[in-house]
Amino acid sequence: MSGALYVRDAREACASDGDAAPGQARSRDPDGGCRLAGDGTLPARSEVEARRTGYLVRGGPTKADVWTSSLDSGARVVVKDFSRKTWLVRQWGRVQISREARFLELLDGAGIAPRFAGRLGRYALAMEYVDGTPLYAHPGPGARPHLARLRVLLDDLQARGIVHNDLRGRENILLLAGGEGLVLLDWASAVRLPPGTLRHRALFGALKRVDDSAFLKWKDMLDPSTLTADERAAIQRFRRWRRLWPLNRKGVGWTRTGS
Ligand SMILES: Nc1ncnc2c1ncn2[C@@H]1O[C@H](COP(=O)(O)OP(=O)(O)OP(=O)(O)O)[C@@H](O)[C@H]1O
Ligand SMILES: [Mg+2]
């Protein structure tokens, strides 16, 4: 995670009002760039798109396209983008993008999520490109420090009243290229119940179990020898429960290869 994400030479920034989501703060910064929500400075969508370097995911009809762009500053960003989808899917995407942008902004600089670069209109957002590999590709005893790191990240999140809610997704945790440090992706399902509030007291204990149970899944997948007897029992309980779930096509729910 570099500090060099933000753009210094944002010539076209603020050029097109169509690039601003309604109500989104935008103002000129001293470099002439357009400071969007978050503290990133991002050129206009046209420039980011002109500098597209490739696709990470070509989303199907209902999923976001995820592409990369190398900006003038040398920063590489990832754009999550619903803008080429049908009208109906764009409305769904708009909600997803708003939710994800909110959490990326909230966690910007915390070392848990990619740095937030800004919104690109209603249907897309940009974030730091994280140079890493999916954590699931690193099983074995060597994964122990990664599991310990993941627990620290989850404790940090939970202290902020945040539940990620989609950590069972195998692709949603990246191990940084140097091998030290994890970054959690895909924040559209996250929930925040601010500590100290009534709703936090009433609901957070139950909600955080979603991430805690995903953490056990990661332990089981990467290095089952790290599981305590209690954790093994919890996994068994979860498997039994999943077998009863009528929408679970595999009937077993929990596998080594996916969620
Ligand atoms: N900031 C990033 N840096 C590097 N790679 C990324 C970044 N964001 C996303 N990716 C890659 O793109 C993939 C898809 O991103 P993401 O999970 O956010 O999209 P999605 O549409 O929600 O996908 P899905 O629903 O299939 O999980 C990730 O699994 C990861 O491989
Ligand atoms: Mg994902």
List the helices and strands and how they pair.
Layout: E1 27-28, E2 34-35, H1 45-50, E3 52-57, E4 65-70, E5 76-81, H2 87-106, E6 116-119, E7 124-128, E8 132-134, H3 144-159, E9 162-163, E10 173-176, E11 182-184, E12 191-192, H4 198-222, H5 229-244
Antiparallel strand pairs: 1-2, 3-4, 4-5, 5-7, 6-7, 8-10, 9-12, 10-11
Could you state the oligomeric state of the chains shown?
A: single chain
Structural category is alpha+beta
Tally of DSSP helical segments: 5
CATH fold call of the largest domain: Transferase(Phosphotransferase), domain 1
Which ions and ligands are bound to the chains? adenosine-5'-triphosphate, magnesium ion
Radius of gyration: 20 Å
Tally of separate domains: 2
Which homologous superfamily in CATH is the superfamily of the largest domain?
A: Transferase(Phosphotransferase) domain 1
